[in-house]
Write a structure and sequence with these properties.
The chain has three domains: 220 residues, Jelly Rolls (Sandwich); 57 residues; 147 residues, YVTN repeat-like/Quinoprotein amine dehydrogenase (Methylamine Dehydrogenase, Chain H), CATH 2.130.10.10. Strands 1, 5, 7, 12, 13, 14 and 16 form a seven-stranded antiparallel sheet that branches. The chain contains two helices and 35 strands. The C terminus is likely disordered. The protein is globular, with a radius of gyration of 28 Å. It is mainly β and 480 residues long.
Length: 480
């Protein structure tokens, strides 16, 4: 389990993982009332009928799995209740597009009163099962395995009971695969989200079995059980000079802290961090307070497990999908026409990367003084690669039939040329034509009276279909 949210503090903080965040002005229609669940009172979150630009950002903490670049196997569970005013209408639960763009539907819903085969059922893509009554608390679970056979990619549960199974479109890394963040209780189309209440949310980075979900049963005032992901006090005893404390959960270093002044606590580490789940504390003051905290792990700058990278600022970088690591500083890249190879322009070399397996086939040193900050191109037939150098040169490589790349030549440019940063090899254009065009573009950078600005949308081929990134601008210099 990599994320849980229980709302017991009357805000969006996480019990496990990263805090939820409001999108847009969502906070204006959110409150944290007390509600009765199974005869006991619990604090819950009340949310409104969110639309495009509204919702809750959820960073689930899952890692790529299921044979793809994204999270393809996961389980989402939630304790929810929808009032009578929302019953019989579409109720969005899970939006895999973290931008929730206008016109973009959510993925998981509680259906309206006309859906089949079950009105007010749960599901996706026109297949809804079970039935939710108004004003009743339910524990919903969606177990996703995009690598599973057809008809078994989504398993749907209500109060631990399997109510339906179905296929999901897109397969591995498709529509239902997850990047680092999603949104909750919102859709990009009007009328597809309604007001409701949520007591507890849990995200598991993996597919949970029917037996595991059945064991969780119906919702309770305590919310979903976090298992060993949360520190829990199990026992407390004392005598005249010693306090005995026992706990469960975490399974990693725990730090005991002490505060002498209860009115204005100044927490200080009291004993060394320990992995034990029991400790004897000497009582050294007439009045004192103790608490247990997960011990912060020492972060070393550099590569971390699970393909993560730590920075001197104590930030941790994690790619949305799979990554390839190498020394240097990548400045540009281009995809081969057949989509099988990525050419990465590094500061000192050209990297040839297999696009399917995402591994480095070759590392080719630049023959001169290094690369310019941008500029790498592939010929339309994929047989040649060109990259601008740091000085006045253009490097050329040839691609053999077995996809091995070898250096061909350095094309010298006149002194002071400084090739423009954005280049592309046009259809039927030879290297000599490219050099001439670069020189013309350079000349007109100083003398032309007009610039043609074109806007294009770039979308990497291995992202889920609904990840369309913001438009980027490139300047093409047109001779006059």
């Amino acid at each position: 389990m990599t994320g849980q949210w229980d709302f017991q503090q009357g805000d969006l903080r996480a019990t496990v993982g990263a805090d939820l965040e409001y999108a847009g002005n969502t906070a204006q229609q959110v409150s944290f009332p007390l509600k009765n669940i199974q005869g006991r009172v619990a604090r819950v979150m009340a949310f409104g009928a969110n639309g495009a630009g509204q919702g809750f950002y959820l960073r689930h903490g899952g890692r790529p799995n299921g044979g793809g670049h994204f999270v393809n196997q996961y389980t989402l569970m939630m304790d929810v209740m929808f009032p009578a005013a929302s019953s019989g209408q579409w109720r969005a639960l899970w939006q895999t597009d973290p931008f929730n763009r206008e016109g973009n539907e959510a993925e998981f819903y509680v259906s309206d009163a006309a859906a089949a085969p079950s009105p007010n059922g749960i599901g996706a893509e026109g297949q809804f099962h079970g039935a939710l009554a108004a004003g009743t608390w339910y524990r919903l679970a969606f177990a996703v395995n995009l690598a599973a056979p057809a008809g078994r990619q989504l398993m749907k549960y209500i109060n631990g009971v399997l109510v339906g199974a179905q296929s999901l479109s897109g397969g591995v890394d498709g529509r239902f695969a997850l990047g680092p963040a999603v949104q909750l209780f919102t859709a990009g189309r009007p009328g597809l989200a309604q007001a409701g209440f949520v007591r507890s949310l849990q995200f598991v980075n993996g597919w949970m079995s029917p037996a595991d979900i059945a064991a969780l049963g119906a919702p309770t005032a305590e919310g979903l059980p976090p298992g060993n992901s949360v520190l829990k006090i199990k026992g407390l005893g004392h005598n005249a000079s010693t306090l005995e404390l026992a706990w469960s959960g975490l399974g990693k270093d725990v730090q005991l802290q002490q505060a002498i002044r209860p009115a204005a606590p100044d927490w200080q580490n009291f004993l060394p961090a320990t992995t034990n789940q029991q400790i004897h504390i000497p009582i050294t003051a007439a009045q004192t307070r103790f608490r247990l905290q997960p011990a912060p792990a020492e972060i070393q700058v550099g590569q971390l497990p699970e393909e993560q990278q730590s920075l001197p600022s104590r930030q941790i970088l994690r790619a949305a999908g799979r990554q390839v690591q190498f020394a240097g500083r990548p400045v540009d890249l281009v995809l081969s026409p057949d989509g099988q190879t990525v050419y990465i322009k590094n500061m000192r070399n050209l990297l040839v990367v297999d696009a399917a397996g995402w591994w480095i086939r070759q590392t080719l040193a630049f023959p001169g003084g290094g690369a310019s900050m941008h500029g790498v191109a592939v010929s339309p037939d994929g047989s040649h690669i060109y990259a601008t150098g740091a000085g006045n040169e253009l490097y050329e490589w040839a691609v053999a039939s077995n996809n091995l790349v070898s250096f061909v030549r350095t094309i010298a440019l006149p002194g002071g040329s400084y090739p423009v940063s954005y280049t592309h090899l046009r259809a039927h254009e030879t290297p000599e034509h490219l050099v001439c065009r670069l020189l013309l573009e350079k000349k007109n950078l100083h003398t032309s009276t007009r610039l043609q600005i074109t806007t294009t949308t770039h979308k990497l081929p291995y992202l889920p279909h609904n990840y369309t990134y913001p438009q980027t601008r490139h300047t093409h210099l047109i001779p006059t």
